[in-house]
Amino acid sequence: MEDIFANPLFETVKGMRGLDTLVSQCTVIGGDVTEPELAISPEDRTLITENVSIIYHCAATIRFDETLKKAVMLNTRGTKYMIDLAKQCKKLDMFGYVSTSYCHLNEKLLLEKPYAPPADPHKVIKAVEWLEEGVVDGMTKKILGDCPNTYAYTKALAEALVVESMDEIPAVIFRPSIVIPTWREPIPGWTDNINGPVGLLIGAGKGVIRSMYCNSDGYGDYLPVDFAVSAMCVCTWNYVGNKDHKRNIYHLVSSAEIKVSWEGIIERGKWIVSNKIPLNGVLWYPGGSMKRTRWEHNLSAFFFHWIPAFLIDCLLYCFGYKPILWRIHQRIAKGFEVFEYYANNQWDFDNATILHLRTIINEEEKVKFKIDAGGVEIQEYFENCIRAARWYILKETDDTIPAARRHMRVMWWVDKICKTLIYGGLIYYIGKALYSMLFASVF
């Protein structure tokens, strides 16, 4: 709890209420969703079942390349254990399961309704419990079928468990899309990880990512995390306060109102770091492009990712430093394997319940609990994201910006000079070859 409240995210509320007040209002329960009975002590379980009225189940592994056994134990069986606990709560008003709008990927238009799971979750849990991890790993591709990763598969299974429980407990499902940094509250652009678009912005801004295999005109559905939290609060008020139990699946999405293409994200990011908020230690001037075919990307990655990584790591090794760039590009390539599936497919989402909620909250609540896109400036938002990433992820303070700008100007000249030399050399040798062929054909 001390670590949580030490996060800059809580500075505003600590200033308003004081840290001691916040601590006094919280109770820590030791537990583990991968363990039977959630590893909660009998005393703590009694404390929960006698007092708790609202549960938000958010715990999950969000790694797309997680092993199937671990993902099932955490995402699916963990949800089953949480439902079992909720059934024991005497004052339960709502059990809220945080799912994802990207867990039924065979549906190109996802509606706010239950969908059949890819398998029987109970049978999958029993099978995974019984089998060794190595055996499960060997069967993973066959088990997943058309599902691209263990995350989507196990979240879909968990949804089925929640739907199954709706006859016994008051349960709702929240389906947020790709959760991205905050819009404004409590810190503009805040995040604590480099998942999603932030990682792309940093990679492109550092000059490391030069190519991606992606439908540049396609778009993802993004949701700032403060919008997601506000929406969950309003949905809870509607379900519990208004007793609107018919609406129990909520899509927390944005693409019906704001569509930002993948190319738009990268181009905005490159412009911002090149002209307004440069990052420290840029390896090359931001550039490159998205490729519509895999062979184009692979060719570009070979010349602009792998060869530079090898050469720079050799220099680092010679100067006594630990090689790092090759390992970074291995991680980027692994991330691209997941990203490419989502970037080259398209989904849309119906959000009729949220549209309804906008009509029943008052003007003050519309400001405090932001659940619409009014006033959102995309350019300003991405600038805040990069500035916050500089502070909170890269630990680059504002006093380093002038030096970063000077370094960026140097890298601009290096980029132009190198391109001039390379293209000039190619033109020279091609011209020389053509002249030789022409001379030979004449004589």
UniProtKB/TrEMBL annotation:
<keyword id="KW-0443">Lipid metabolism</keyword>
<comment type="similarity">
    <text>Belongs to the fatty acyl-CoA reductase family.</text>
</comment>
<keyword id="KW-0444">Lipid biosynthesis</keyword>
<dbReference type="Pfam" id="PF03015">
    <property type="entry name" value="Sterile"/>
</dbReference>
<keyword id="KW-0812">Transmembrane</keyword>
<dbReference type="GO" id="GO:0016020">
    <property type="term" value="C:membrane"/>
</dbReference>
<dbReference type="InterPro" id="IPR026055">
    <property type="entry name" value="FAR"/>
</dbReference>
<dbReference type="GO" id="GO:0005777">
    <property type="term" value="C:peroxisome"/>
</dbReference>
<feature type="transmembrane region" description="Helical">
    <location>
        <begin position="421"/>
        <end position="442"/>
    </location>
</feature>
<keyword id="KW-1133">Transmembrane helix</keyword>
<feature type="domain" description="Thioester reductase (TE)">
    <location>
        <begin position="4"/>
        <end position="232"/>
    </location>
</feature>
<keyword id="KW-0560">Oxidoreductase</keyword>
<dbReference type="InterPro" id="IPR033640">
    <property type="entry name" value="FAR_C"/>
</dbReference>
<dbReference type="GO" id="GO:0035336">
    <property type="term" value="P:long-chain fatty-acyl-CoA metabolic process"/>
</dbReference>
<dbReference type="Pfam" id="PF07993">
    <property type="entry name" value="NAD_binding_4"/>
</dbReference>
<feature type="domain" description="Fatty acyl-CoA reductase C-terminal">
    <location>
        <begin position="304"/>
        <end position="396"/>
    </location>
</feature>
<dbReference type="GO" id="GO:0080019">
    <property type="term" value="F:alcohol-forming very long-chain fatty acyl-CoA reductase activity"/>
</dbReference>
<keyword id="KW-0521">NADP</keyword>
<keyword id="KW-0472">Membrane</keyword>
<protein>
    <recommendedName>
        <fullName>Fatty acyl-CoA reductase</fullName>
        <ecNumber>1.2.1.84</ecNumber>
    </recommendedName>
</protein>
<feature type="transmembrane region" description="Helical">
    <location>
        <begin position="299"/>
        <end position="321"/>
    </location>
</feature>
<dbReference type="InterPro" id="IPR036291">
    <property type="entry name" value="NAD(P)-bd_dom_sf"/>
</dbReference>
<comment type="function">
    <text>Catalyzes the reduction of fatty acyl-CoA to fatty alcohols.</text>
</comment>
<dbReference type="InterPro" id="IPR013120">
    <property type="entry name" value="FAR_NAD-bd"/>
</dbReference>
<dbReference type="GO" id="GO:0102965">
    <property type="term" value="F:alcohol-forming long-chain fatty acyl-CoA reductase activity"/>
</dbReference>
